[in-house]
Structure formats: structure tokens, C-alpha cells
Amino acid sequence: MNEPATITRSCRGSVLDNGPVSRGLLRLDLRLEVPVNFLPGQFAMLNRSGGRAFVFGRPFSILAVDGDTVSFLYRVVGRGTAVLAELEPGDELTFLGPLGRPFPGPDVVRPALLVGGGVGLPPVAAWLARWGRDGDVACFGGRDGHDVPWDLLGSDWAVSVDETEGVPADHTAWHGLVTELAADRLAHAEGPGTVLACGPVPLLRAAADLAAREDWDCWLSLEEHMGCGYGVCKGCVVPVRDPAVSPWRNATCCSEGPVFPAADIVWEVYGAQASLAVTEPERPPKEKP
Ligand SMILES: Cc1cc2nc3c(=O)[nH]c(=O)nc-3n(C[C@H](O)[C@H](O)[C@H](O)COP(=O)(O)OP(=O)(O)OC[C@H]3O[C@@H](n4cnc5c(N)ncnc54)[C@H](O)[C@@H]3O)c2cc1C
Ligand code: FES
């Protein structure tokens, strides 16, 4: 399949819209100085512009691109995402992207079972929007009905919730883990095919186990802590099997991933290791002239 080449851009973006799509999940639409293209699974580093920039931008999977407009979904977990949540239309950010290796395209994925948990939704939603076909199945998991971006998901997604509270009367949701929902859907799918997943590590591990059990391929998008975002700082390593290196080696998640074949990940190490967070030094506030 011929896809237009994706070229990494570093440019400014002006906020078009920024607001909640569910409890705790926000959508940010940015108009960039130049049009961009991306492949599902790729991400961008976002940062404040000018003198208030963080030392490191923050990585976010790209949800959608329309010409010069790029969209993200995010959850506030710390300082960088708190800054994002305060942005108003017209405010500026810097954008570096698209970065990283995407999910495989539909020519090697037949059929697809997509699994997204929480803020793991954007890369799999981007895949479904770009390449989804009849026979593909998409499963999204939230903690409860308030967590689920119902309007954004539309009718294409099966939804699971840990608690049924907040599920609207005109929607249905599987009560349980999203990987249990995915296992149910996989049992009824025409396979073997490919599982594509993004979310917290336990979800990734369960998706990988499910795929291995059923003899499906599996690709995972890992949301590792990142510094530079393009392979220099080595702050984002993931232990992977590599025939050339025994027993395993550290791959840089930003440039060799964030999408990896599940079979390459050394779970005993990856699941157990404290993530190598890149600690950012505090900058003194700038003196106002
Ligand atoms: C390739 C990639 C794609 C991502 N896509 C999205 C996305 O689409 N939407 C979204 O909301 N988030 C996404 N993330 C995670 C996002 O980058 C972090 O939540 C963000 O950097 C946190 O910045 P902060 O300054 O608010 O938090 P910090 O102050 O840096 O950290 C606050 C807390 O969050 C934890 N944390 C920070 N980064 C991560 C991480 N990567 N994974 C798990 N915990 C983390 C820290 O350990 C700490 O406990 C993605 C990460 C990667 C690597
Ligand atoms: S974030 Fe710097 S090498 Fe990956």
C-alpha cells in the first residue's frame, strides 16, 4: 500500500480547541504552521514555546491529522499535562513530529483486533480511522461510564467498564476488563489476525498473552517515559529480544518504537523494572523585563 511519506517537522502550533471528551480525558486540536502527515502509532513531542519551554517536551500519540490541524487526547498526570489543560484557543505550543515507528499497515494485518485502554486510545483509534475494514474489531476500556468518550468512539467500538456507573442508558458496555472483552471478540473473529494494543502495562501484557494463546500476531505501542523523543538521551529504553544480542538488549522506545512486536518484549524485565524516568531540572522563573 502506498502511503505518503511522513516528514518530521518542528514548528509552532496554535490551539484551536482544548477541552474534555470524557471525565479526565481531554482533546487538543492544534493548527500548525505547516501541514503534516503521520502514520497510526506515531507521536509528537509537545512543549511550551519560548522562554517558558520545559527542558523536554512531552510525547503524545497523534489521534488525527487534517492538513495543518493535528489532534491529541490526553489526561492530566503532572506538570506538563497540567500546562496543556490550561491552554486556550490562540495559545501557542511547539510541535515536533511525527516521530517513531508506526503500527503495521492493513496489508500485513488481517483481521485486526484493536485494544485501547484510557489514554492508549489515540494510536489504535487512528489505525481504525485510517485502515479499519469489515471484520476488524475495536475494544476500548475505561474505569466507568464517565471515563468513556462515547461521542468520539461512535458505534465502531465495543466498550468495557470496570464499574457500570455512568454508562448512558442508550449505550451498552461489557462489565469487566477490556482484555476480557477482547478475548470474547477474538473468539468470534475470523482469524488468525493481528492484535494492536496501547494502554497500561498490564493491559499490554494481557493483550500479548491473549494473542500468543490464539496464535495471532501482536503489536504494542509502549508509552515509556521520554526525554528527547528522537534517540539521543537514552531515557526511554525497553528490553527487547534480538537474535544478535544475548539474552536481550535495550531498545530506544522513541526511535525503535513506540510500536514493538509483542514477542520481542522481555516482560520479566520490562514489567518489573522501575521505568527510567528522565528527571527534568527545575528552571528558575524568567525575570519580567
Ligand atoms: C509514545 C508515547 C505516546 C503517548 N501518548 C499519550 C497520549 O496520547 N495521551 C496521554 O495522555 N499521554 C500519552 N503519553 C504519556 C504522556 O507522555 C505522559 O503522561 C506525559 O509525558 C506526562 O507529563 P507530565 O509532565 O504531565 O507528567 P510528569 O510530571 O512527567 O509525571 C507525572 C506522573 O506521570 C508519570 N508518567 C510520566 N510519563 C509517563 C508515561 N509515559 N507513562 C506512564 N506514566 C508516566 C510519572 O511517573 C509521574 O508519576 C504517551 C507517552 C509516549 C511515550
Ligand atoms: S527519549 Fe531520548 S532516546 Fe528516547
What does this structure look like?
- Helix 4 packs parallel to helix 5.
- It is built from seven helices and 16 strands.
- 19% of the residues lie in helices and 33% in strands.
- It has three domains: 91 residues, Elongation Factor Tu (Ef-tu), domain 3; 116 residues, 3-Layer(aba) Sandwich (Rossmann fold), CATH 3.40.50.80; 55 residues, no CATH class.
- The radius of gyration is 19 Å and the shape is globular.
- A seven-stranded antiparallel sheet has the order 4-3-7-1-2-6-5.
- The C terminus is likely disordered.
- The chain has 289 residues and is α/β, with parallel strands linked by helices.
- The longest helix has 14 residues.
- Strand 5 and strand 6 form a beta hairpin.
- The structure holds flavin-adenine dinucleotide and FE2/S2 (inorganic) cluster (FES).
- The site of flavin-adenine dinucleotide has 22 residues, from strand 4, strand 6 and helix 1.
Key attributes of the depicted protein:
Elongation Factor Tu (Ef-tu), domain 3; binds FE2/S2 (inorganic) cluster; binds flavin-adenine dinucleotide; disordered C terminus; seven-stranded mixed beta sheet; 19% helix; Rossmann fold
Task: Give the number of DSSP strands.
Answer: 16
Elements, N to C (H/E):
EEEEEEHEEHEHEEHEHEEEHEH
Tertiary shape:
globular
Distance between the termini: 55 Å
Largest sheet: 7 strands, antiparallel
